[in-house]
């Protein structure tokens, strides 16, 4: 399998594991009947590229797991239609950067799992006002080098109760 399959109408859950799905093209879920999806599990698929309009029809998506992919970067606009997303899992995906504006439309986001990537820099000042429901952020085992001690300050008014920074290579907080 190298593409998203056609789905029966009203499909709410899609799971694809250990298959080669290298890219998600514009409107791929809409064209294949996935506009009612609430949860997508694309685990260990070799995903490398997401078109900026791949998720345009997925306004009801709540859980998105693309762990163990080969996705190195996202532009940010790929996520702009995921208004109801509550959980985002991009663990061990070679991700080097996640633009902070990519989460600005995710007003219901509660959990973000970004561990075991190659992220070097994080900022939240442009989107923190939209992340009022965020309580779990895992950025452990990344390449976060030196970050300003204020990097997470914009999240102070959010209900963030779980911030995981374990084993971040040579992490230094600068005042």
Structural summary, described in words:
With 175 residues, this protein is mainly β. It has one domain: Ribonuclease Inhibitor (Leucine-rich repeat, LRR (right-handed beta-alpha superhelix)), CATH 3.80.10. The protein is 2% helix and 20% strand. It is built from one helix and eleven strands; from the N terminus they run ββαβββββββββ. The protein has a seven-stranded parallel sheet, with no helix packed on it. A two-stranded parallel sheet has the order 2-4. A two-stranded parallel sheet has the order 9-11. The longest helix has 4 residues. The protein is globular and about 45 Å long. The model has no long low-confidence stretch (mean pLDDT 81).
Helix content: under 10%
Spatially, the strands of the biggest sheet line up as 1-3-5-6-7-8-10
Question: Any idea what the radius of gyration is?
Answer: 16 Å
Structural class: mainly beta
Give the termini separation.
50 Å
Q: Give the helix tally.
A: 1
CATH 4th-level superfamily:
Ribonuclease Inhibitor
Beta content comes to: 15-25%
Oligomer: single chain
**Into how many domains do the coordinates divide?**
1
Highest CATH level, the class: Alpha Beta
Q: Count of DSSP E strands? A: 11
Written as H for each helix and E for each strand, in order along the chain, the element string is: EEHEEEEEEEEE
CATH architecture: Alpha-Beta Horseshoe
Give unreliable regions as ranges: none
- State mean pLDDT (0 to 100 scale): 81
The backbone outline, from C-alpha atoms, is: globular
What characterizes the major β-sheet? 7 strands, parallel
Could you say what the CATH topology is called?
A: Leucine-rich repeat, LRR (right-handed beta-alpha superhelix)
């Amino acid at each position: 399998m190298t593409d998203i399959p056609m789905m029966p109408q009203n499909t709410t859950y899609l799971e694809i594991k250990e298959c080669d799905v290298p890219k998600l093209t514009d409107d791929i879920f809409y064209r294949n009947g996935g506009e009612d999806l609430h949860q997508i599990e694309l685990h260990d698929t070799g995903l490398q590229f997401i078109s900026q309009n791949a998720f345009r029809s997925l306004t009801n998506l709540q859980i998105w797991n693309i762990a163990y992919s080969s996705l190195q970067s996202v532009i940010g606009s790929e996520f702009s239609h995921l208004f109801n997303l509550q959980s985002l899992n991009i663990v061990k995906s070679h991700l080097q950067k996640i633009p902070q504006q990519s989460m600005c439309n995710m007003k219901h986001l509660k959990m973000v799992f970004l561990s075991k990537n190659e992220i070097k820099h994080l900022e939240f000042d442009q989107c923190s006002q939209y992340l009022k429901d965020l309580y779990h952020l895992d950025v452990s085992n990344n390449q976060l080098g030196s970050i300003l001690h204020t990097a997470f300050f914009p999240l102070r008014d959010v209900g963030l109760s779980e911030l995981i920074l374990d084993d971040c290579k040579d992490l230094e907080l600068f005042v």
